[in-house]
Design a protein that fits this description.
Blueprint (H helix, E strand, L loop, with lengths): L3 E7 L5 H4 L1 H7 L2 E7 L2 H4 L10 E5 L5 H8 L4 E3 L9 H22 L15
Length: 123
């Protein structure tokens, strides 16, 4: 199996959904940059010690940490959603995080976008 040299960024890797694609990406030969707010928690995941996994601390609400995590990546899995309970704040937090991801990917310059969808719903 050949290893794909450019890492794939997986956001919110400590979450249930965020951590799910990592084993499949590793099995397919990809390098993974797993990003989460808590390195200690992420370090407990079964894939955390894999030789092709790089753990980085970051938050989708913090643009600078997201830019740093995206640097050098060709692809990003953006699997975040807000956990804010108040409807008005939930929608704005999701929008801000999605805008941060677009800005971080744009700053990374070489990152590819297959398709970007930003959808909001009024509950």
């Amino acid at each position: 199996m050949s290893v794909i040299p450019d890492p794939i960024l997986v956001t919110v890797a400590t979450g249930y959904v965020g951590g799910r694609p990592i084993p499949a990406l590793l099995a397919a030969g990809y390098r993974v940059r797993a990003m989460g707010r808590n390195l200690e928690k992420m370090g407990c995941r079964p894939w955390a010690g894999h030789s092709r996994v790089e753990l980085v601390q970051g938050d989708v609400m913090d643009l600078e940490s997201l830019k740093q995590a995206a640097r050098g990546c060709r692809v990003a899995y953006y699997l975040a959603h807000s956990m804010i309970a108040q409807k008005e704040k939930f929608v704005e937090a999701d929008r801000r995080a999605a805008r941060n991801m677009v800005a971080a990917a744009t700053a990374a310059a070489q990152m590819e976008f297959g398709e970007v969808k930003i959808r909001t719903t009024n509950h």
